[in-house]
Amino acid sequence: MSDLDKLYADSFRGLKPGIITKGTVMQISKDGVIVDVGSKSEGFIPVSELVEDENMNPGDEVEVFIERLSDAHGFVKLSRQKAEGVKTWDMMESAFNESQTVDGKITGKVKGGMTVNIGGISAFLPGSQIDLKAPKNTDSLIGQTYTFKILNLNHKGSNIIVSRRVLLEEERSKLREQTLLKLQEGSVIEGTVKNLTDYGVFVDLGGLDGLLHISDMSWGRISHPGELFSIGDKIEVIVLTYNKETTKVTLGYKQKKPDPWTTVEEKYPAGQKVVGKVINTTDYGVFIELEEGVEGLIHVTELDWVEKSIKPSKYYSIGDQLEAAVLKVSKDDKKISLSIKLLKPNPWKTVKEKYAVGQKITGKVKSFADFGAFISLDEGIDALLHISDMSWVKRVRHPSDILKKAQEIEVIILSIEPDKERISVGLKELTPDPWISDIPSKYALGDTISGKIVSIADFGLFVELEDGVEGLLHVSEVEKKHDEKLEDLFTAGDELSARIINVNPEERKIDLSLKTMIG
Questions:
Q1: Is residue 282 pLDDT above 50, yes or no?
Q2: What are the φ and ψ backbone dihedral angles of 225, each rounded to 5 degrees?
Q3: Strand bridging mode 248-252 / 209-213
Q4: What would the mean pLDDT of 54-80 be, rounded to a whole number?
Q5: Per-residue pLDDT averaged across 226-238, rounded?
Q6: Residue 404's closest CA among 371, 373, 448?
Q7: CA-to-CA distance for 290 and 374, rounded, in angstroms?
Q8: Using CB atoms within 10 A of its CB, is residue 141 exposed (0-12), middle (13-18) or buried (19+)?
Q9: What is the mean pLDDT of residues 410-438?
Q10: Are 101 and 70 in contact (CB under 8 A)?
Q11: Which has the closest alpha carbon to 148: 129, 132, 134?
């Protein structure tokens, strides 16, 4: 061996490519790091072979991987990445063989799963192994560090498959065993809201899910579980039922408090004034909450003494505070009937003191119905003018034939019924009944009269005579062919002459005929 060869061997004594050795950081530059690896040798770690984000200072002791004993500048070529990689592989092989866990950072997404950095080595995390339930959004996982179990490790192909789900399942299984030991009906247990549905909430009790049905959430009214709970909420629940064979668990939340309906009859006696918050409005009334879990209904007929056609949603909004009086309470049916109008003076109590049957009064036409018109009086009370009390002689088909809305008219009171909240008035009663005073003397049997057809029916024609009096020309009193119809022979508005064949004041009826006409 030459002196030069002996010098070379002395310089690199104990060093050879492919091993890991310790060295001391001597100098740091932008191109890399110079390291004293002993045996009178200096090594160089290029920037490309440094560990990302590693902080090194002169004097630090580091482990390096020897790639080559001498480069063009006489340095031993070193690598920090490969040193860490070899250590990581050794660690992962040990973890795989002994079923130990490893920590890694999720670094990105690939087809079928995600990549995980474990000590500088990339591993594959299948989508099915990310969690107990496949997450909808995996972007939020990138950059997060978790503990994994190695499912497969192939050193030659650098193929590593890891799982997080296996560890979660093991943890959940242990929790489940602990939960089953302490689970019994009537016990109070803490859980985490796991999922929301229209009919209830699934609560994770610790490796075991229980169902909290919407009907067991509140003594009051709720339309969706989301009004009370959100996913991730920690809640205390009561075990209502537990089937050891199926491990099916049903839970209760409202049962943590006494049923408020058990004492409502004592707390809310009839006649008591109460204050509540509007929680719902319908066409038939307003629901108000008196306390948590207890609500009452103000029926539309109990909103006002006078106005009977109130649309609750026009006057009341959810959240409004209302005063009302208790009408009736049933704890068995869980119903409380309330009234607002009872807190106001009843105008019907003074009606009989102010008005009398036969009295002539003035009112304003408020609204129409097929059967009559409602006339508004001073107190806001409405009186009914029935269609049959509008005219002695004219057949009124609809109130609008002779009246207009907001029109002021004079009427006579026909009846007063305060208990039924009803006043009836008449318009025709302002004048004498012509069927008694005038018609019998004005229209005689056999007289020929002229009139105008006002309507045509299958059974005959209605003919308007003088003063609005109508006579009936029955179909049998018209000379026509068998297959002819009245509408083929006559038109409303036509003038005709007919003979009177019957006058009956008691039935308020005049019958006419065309058959007895001459020429």
A1: yes
A2: -55, -30
A3: parallel
A4: 81
A5: 93
A6: 373
A7: 37
A8: middle
A9: 89
A10: no
A11: 129
Q: Is 101 helix (H, G, I), strand (E, B) or coil?
A: strand
Residue 24's contacts (CB-CB under 8 Å, 6 or more residues apart) are 35, 36, 59, 60, 61, 62
Mean local confidence (pLDDT), 303-323: 87
Q: What is residue 2's predicted lDDT score, i.e. its pLDDT?
A: 44
Assess whether pLDDT exceeds 70 at residue 464: yes
Average pLDDT over residues 374-383: 84
**Domains along the chain with CATH numbers:** 3-84 (2.40.50.140), 99-168 (2.40.50.140), 183-256 (2.40.50.140), 260-343 (2.40.50.140), 347-430 (2.40.50.140), 438-513 (2.40.50.140)
* Contact status, residue 129 vs residue 152, Cβ threshold 8 Å: no
Alpha helices in 192-318 (DSSP H): 264-267, 312-315
Split at pLDDT 50, 70, 90, the class of 7 is very low
As a whole number of angstroms, the distance between CA 519 and CA 513 comes to: 14
Q: How many CA atoms lie within 13 A of 103 on its CB side?
A: 3
CA gap 249, 246 in Å, rounded: 9
Place of tokens 């087809």: 111
Whole-prediction pTM: 0.50
Phi first, then psi, for residue 76 (nearest 5°) are -75, 125
Flag whether pLDDT at 206 surpasses 80: yes
| Terminal Cα distance for the chain, rounded | 164
472 bridge partner residues:
462, 511
Strands 335-339 and 113-118 turn out to be: unpaired
